[in-house]
Design a protein that fits this description.
Two copies of one chain form a homodimer.
Chain A (H helix, E strand, L loop, with lengths): L7 H11 L1 H7 L1 E5 L1 H5 L6 E7 H6 L11 E3 L1 H7 L8 E6 L5 H4 L6 E5 L5 H13 L4 E5 L8 H7 L8 E4 L2 H10 L3 E5 L5 E2 L9 E5 L8 H4 L4 E4 L11 H17 L1
Parallel strand pairs in A: 2-3, 5-6, 5-10, 6-7, 8-10, 8-11, 9-11
Antiparallel strand pairs in A: 1-4, 2-4
Helix pairs in contact in A: 7-8, 7-11
Chain lengths: 257, 257
């Protein structure tokens, strides 16, 4: 039982909660709460921490082939990112995908995120992408970190299943998509064409921009078509996760028809 | 210039930030930031607070027929709900709508929210509803407060324009909708029919449930049809704001066709 917050392992966890760079150096991220921990693929769990109370009540229901490290409630509160910690936290190995592999499915459906900043939005987009059958999410290096604890929570488990990759140059990646015959649509407030007038049954990629500023010029220029979501009232724009959801589910709708 | 955080007006603002009940007693809510303050209908501004710096730089650009009360930066930080306050805050009169009036448009498009808890989600739903041309949002009394500062921010201004009403009994209100010939659809994970197989060109209302538990039985039972959003992968559900967005924009799509 770990009883001190100055324990070296606990200190490392606190750093992993805060620092994106350390998570990437170690190749891990943190997952909290019973529901999320249950969804982790067993082979990716590196370490498991529980309070004694959690272990007695629910720990045995977790079918993980690894004995947990027990910690006191005080230590757990200290290492947790949440206000009301449940008493279970896992250190999980990050996934690795190659950009080329994500483009290679026959009727590929892709999402490209340019400088998305809100961690909650980003997690929600992953959750929605999995549900819409997206094959891969491509993120510019300056997007929020999907392994941020708030993003991980917002994915509701999609983080373990939705393929994604951070890339250095979105224009390069989009260029490769076009070589493979993927139609590239930029979501744009001034897009000439309504999003629901396009045919998404073939290979499709959407470009989604930053919450405040939209797509960078050099990214937007790579698109084949600029599309807009027609809006009523005096609304100027939609939340990025909602806009992405409407586009992704339009693909899903057309493909089911 | 107000220089002390123990000034009675400042104390009242701090209470208004925190307490839903006080906001409702006073019939007001708070709005921060240049962009949001610019969208307030002039006749609804009750009081305006600014730092001297904000007033000099941007205060005159605000075309509001009211001289602001100036406060020191320390006092402003104390009264603000945000981490990096911009230096402008308005006390705004709440709107009042009657449930019956919101149902009376010819091809009405309504949203009914049952025990929605996340303030950010709620604000995002208002923002999306305005953009989708929703005529009215009906909320159960135990939903989050749309006048919560976080909700207000998430509406991005829709709070000033999107008609809505909190009601004591959703089943009673849904009953009235049905009397008026409005088709009532319950969004449900186990809905028998895909959402995009229905015709929403006539009078339409959607019922959206709590983030974790969905619709209460007595609310769901009032629906004419249970619809689901078909999902791929192992996703169990969508974020409430994303799900509501997909449904509302399916209405908008069908009506534009």
């Amino acid at each position: 039982m770990i009883t001190s917050t100055s324990n070296q392992k606990i200190k490392e966890i606190v750093q992993l909660q805060k620092k994106s760079r350390l998570r990437n150096e170690r190749g891990v991220f943190l997952v909290e709460g019973l529901r999320m921990v249950q969804e982790i693929p067993a082979e990716r769990i590196v370490q498991l921490y529980m309070t004694e109370e959690f272990y007695k009540k629910k720990g045995k229901a977790l079918t993980v082939a690894m004995s947990p490290e027990l910690v006191t409630p005080t230590v757990f509160s200290y290492m947790s990112d949440t206000k009301s910690p449940q008493g279970v936290l896992a250190v999980v190995r990050q996934s690795e995908y190659r950009a080329e592999d994500l483009m290679d499915e026959p009727d590929v459906h892709l999402l490209v995120l340019d400088n998305l900043q809100d961690p909650g939005n980003l997690g929600t987009i992953f959750r929605t992408a999995e549900a819409a059958g997206v094959n891969g999410v491509f993120l510019s290096r300056d997007c929020a970190d999907i392994y941020n604890p708030k993003s991980v929570r917002s994915t509701m488990g999609a983080i373990f299943r939705q393929p994604f990759v951070y890339v250095d140059s979105l224009p390069d990646v989009i260029g490769k998509m076009k070589e493979k015959g993927i139609a590239v649509y930029a979501a744009h407030l001034e897009g000439a064409r309504a999003y629901d007038r396009e045919d998404y049954r073939g290979r499709t990629a959407f470009l989604i921009g930053n919450e405040g500023n939209g797509l960078r010029k050099e990214v937007e220029e790579m698109a084949d078509v600029r599309i807009r979501i027609p809006m009523a009232g005096r609304a100027e724009s939609l939340n990025a996760a909602v806009a992405a959801g409407i586009l992704m589910f339009e693909v899903s709708r057309q493909r089911r028809e």
